[in-house]
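Researcher: Last one for today. Full complex below.
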Amino acid sequence: MRTYLIFLLCLLQASSSAFAQDKTNVKFGNVKADDFKQTVYAIDSSAAAVVIADIGETAIVGNSKGWFSWEHVHFKRIHILNKSALDVSTVTISLYSNGDQEEELSGLKAYTYNLENGKVVETKLDAKKGVFKDKLSKNRVLRKFTLPNVKEGSIIEYQYKIKSDFLFNLQPWIFQGEHPALWSEYSVSIPQFISYVFLMQGYIAPHIKDKKDSHGNFTVISSGGTSASERYTFTSGVTTHRWVMKDVPVLKEESFTSSIANHISQIQFQLSEYKEPLQYRNVMGDWQAMAKRLREESYFGGDLGKNNGWIGDMIDPIIKEGGGQLAVAKRIFTYVQKNFTCTSSAGLYANENIRTIGRTKRGAVGEINLLLTAMMRYAGIFADPVILSTKSHGYTYAMYPLIDRFNYTISRIVVDDKEYLLDATNQNLGFGFLSPECYNGHARIIDAAATPLELTSDALQESKLTSVLMVNDEKGGMLGAVQKTPGYYESAVLRRKIRGSGLKDYMSEVQKSLPSEFQVADPVVDSLELLEMPVKLQYNFSIPESEEDIIYFNPMLNEAWKRKSIQGSQSFLPGRNALYF
Amino acid sequence: MKSYRMKLLTILLGFLFIAHESEANDNLLYSVMFLPKELVKDANTVRRMEAYEFNLKKPGEAVFKHRYALTILNAAGDRYSNLVVYYDKFFEIKDISGTLYDASGKQLKKVRNKDIQDHSGVDGISLMDDNRVKVHDFYHKDYPYTVEYEVEVKYNGTMFYPEWFPQSREYLAVQQSSYTFTCPEEYDFRYKAYQFASEPAVKREKGLKSYTWEVKNLPAISREPFSPGMRQIAPLVLFGPTAFEMQNYKGNMSTWQDLGKFIYTLKEGRDQLPDIVKQKVQQLTAGVSDTYEKVRLLYEYLQANTRYISIQLGIGGWQPFDAKYVADRKYGDCKALTNYMYSLLKEAGIPSLYAVIGAGRYREDIFTDFPSSQFNHAVLCVPMPKDTIWLECTDQFEACGYMGSFTGNRHALVVDEKGGKLVKTPVYGVDDNKQIRIIHAKLEMDGTIELDVKTRYTGTQQERIKALIDHSTKENLKEYLDEELDFPTYEVADFKHKETKKRIPEIEESLKVSVRSYASITGKRLFLVPNIMSRDGRKLSADNVRKYPVELRGAYTDIDTIVIALPAGFKAESMPKATKITSRFGEYQNDVSIEGNEIKYYRKIVSNEGRYSAEHYKELVDFQSAIYKADRNRIVLVKDENAAGEKRGF
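Model: Here's the assembly. Have a good evening.
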């Protein structure tokens, strides 16, 4: 009897896991009155909107341009629970464009459902008049629409298809968004003749992760100008990968984590190989191959290998000043930093050749630092570019040579066996200093060996020194002097403020942060232009004669930081006559 | 005298010689040598020359040329060195050219067309509008340098004429700037000058008339605390049409009434509601007799059934989508939603007036003496025998009839079939904008203080916290409270908010807060600031000579009543004196007393709104500084050894 019971229990368990949901029954257009019942979802009781289903499918198909495209279908249903989330009904679809052609949006349909007198009432988006196109930039086109008849309690749905000839841009999928999702599913069908590396990121284990093999027919039509178009048809094995995440919470942005981009659950793809029946080509290659390509490409290191005599017009006088390689390197760095305007907050490549950059005196991060590298080499200094990904851009993988993961180029020089990492695009950082954004782990030197580099944020420890001196004056007031040497990166912030709006404005800020009876005077800033040093700020202050017998005074002045454990201990200083300790 | 002349002649000859020697494209007039010292003082940029030429061809078409040279003196002036031109179908850019000069006026570079970037200019609020923008930048950094730009724009609509505001910002000096308005002799254009006394020079020839204004050598302005905006202190000439055209619509702007008529024409007949909405209106208002109550019910219906989506295309920037459009889609922009609300009220038999207004928190009022389109928003005015109701139709959360700092206390142009007239929106004063706070506090031996805080915010004082309640989650609200309170280290253990929607909306907040090391203990002494949560942060430096009037915006009253229970065994060593200050800017009082082991503290501040002449600034500094100090007064308590001894005896 006992054995039987145990057996039954096992059976029950087995059958319940066999029934574990591996499909959602949410289908486009199938909204029922019952779907409106739930106004609070267990996943997040304070959610203003819940994504009921977010489902994407991407497949590779042959095209009529002699190659392959991908087609992506996206369906999403959202239940709006609070009017603060009405914004979810305005949808922006971002399409890539290379200037000539752009990804194609088609088959858009979108509906709003409301429950009125117990019945589901649907309102359709007018896809002809209601979809706007906004050319954001050369490479980005936005299609935008907003759903009609949306209010608190509405359920909205939309579906569309994107067709793209840009295989390298295979549609990624973000499982974790601004609102919690009950079901987020993505499947990608990839034929055997194309390989992608899958880059999965995040902390949520997929509810389902599987793959299925099948066969698919591929038809490629190539039209050779005047000659008749040719048509190839072949069959290939296709693997469909599928990921499902259930009950995906919203990722909260925590202070002190490097960047939300590094943490959300998402999957991205990187084209790696073309295989049989196509001609074999390793697109991704290894680090060395990537470095080799970068060193040769005109948009990166191509110009660095050249003689570049034109650089002499700019820096020959600087080189001639002599003083050893390090001194020359510092002068070149300062020259670039002072004379070139950086037009971007990041940048890997040189869209314009470095000679043009030299002439126009402006460029993106990559352009300026590649020019810096070229100048260093011209001066006979051992220099190579280094590529990295900034914190807000996300991590790079030491395993995969994926150039798209990188967004920032700096320069590394070696003088007397010592290595210096240089970024001439930041006006407030000195020779050998990088902004905290650059300290994001793995980076690569683009030399022949593609040497890896680890940039860790431990290098960013800061310390700061403030001293305050006070004496009585003959009239019964007090005079004081403050000397403050902040840490290096706080100095950079101070530099930016003082250079941007002037010492006068900065001091009036200081004045405001002090007790009203304090009058500040005679401010002096040292090392404002000595970028390798922390800034030193000094000023005097005076306190007029007071009617009070005791003056209580906080020696930290305006230095006490909020939400930090450093707290100014209060003590009191002698007033007119009394010594109070 | 003679030698002086000789010298001058030599210099002039020298100059001519230099001019002759240099390239034809250089412009030595832009050399910083010719920059008077008084223009460099306090300046980051100097407008060396500027010529506005507005040429009205006919009432619906104009050509506008703007040429200027700007010298950038330092890095702080850099951000003004670029050229940014917005355009759409009404403003067509015909040509952009420009040149970069070094400090000596030597030409370095010219604008090349391929260096001009073209972006989408969609404003970030709108789903879609027509705006695009062209941007150019020389990216030069060798100071000082001069950029010269010339832009030619064709106006395909003439509702707006460019204004002349040569000194539009702080730290900008103007060496020379002029504005020439040319139009057919028979056309009457209008203008009005502010902070500028000279009359224009007038020329008439070939059936055209042209008026020219010019300024020279304006030193840079640096604004002072609480000084009025630049438009109130720097020279400004506004221009406006009489007859104008905008995409096949003709209007006249000679008077507010005329402009109102035009705005009314654009919205006229757009109030047809579908039957289903009409029935809803009837159903909602059936059996309700009070007009305000009807308005409130319909306003809440609007809030629950529509949302704000901005689409501004062509004349759609001024013409509302009709009521049916909103009824079908349940969204619209300010114009469409205001018109929709108008239609709902009309169906309920309540007449209302469509109104346009300049919206923005504490935005300066329009120039009421110059009819022109100075507005950016639409609201609805429901006239009542007393206490007219104003409705903000784009906000799903606002209390019915409340305008607050976004649209309150300024002029709106209300329109009907007869035309428009200016009406002042409600002013929210010291009795409306309150923060009434009661704190029960318990001080622990280690200096920690436990607070039980109840605060009632009303009027403009509830706006900030209301925005957070409406638009963010409870967690965000907690984050806000964790950051917002003015203590170095504290924890919010619990909080609650209760909102009451009424004409002057109200929010009640309860907080439980624990503040570590609030009081400090040194030896046997304990130091404590009895004013726990309302320390006024405004402190002004006593500037040398005040130039501009003082403008205080946003009247309010704060009252704090605090009871602090002390740990046993302390007695007062030093108690601050009670303070009572009255001034034209408001009044302040505080009072602290100790009874047994309880400290009682009372603080009240009333801050008036208004404009005061410059000579009163010193008074404001003294007033603020006295408050600043009084707010931070502290009590010194000392351990009562005797009492402690007695205690030990127990």
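The domain at 287-459 of chain A is CATH 3.10.620.30 (C8orf32 fold). The first helix of chain A runs from residue 2 to 18.
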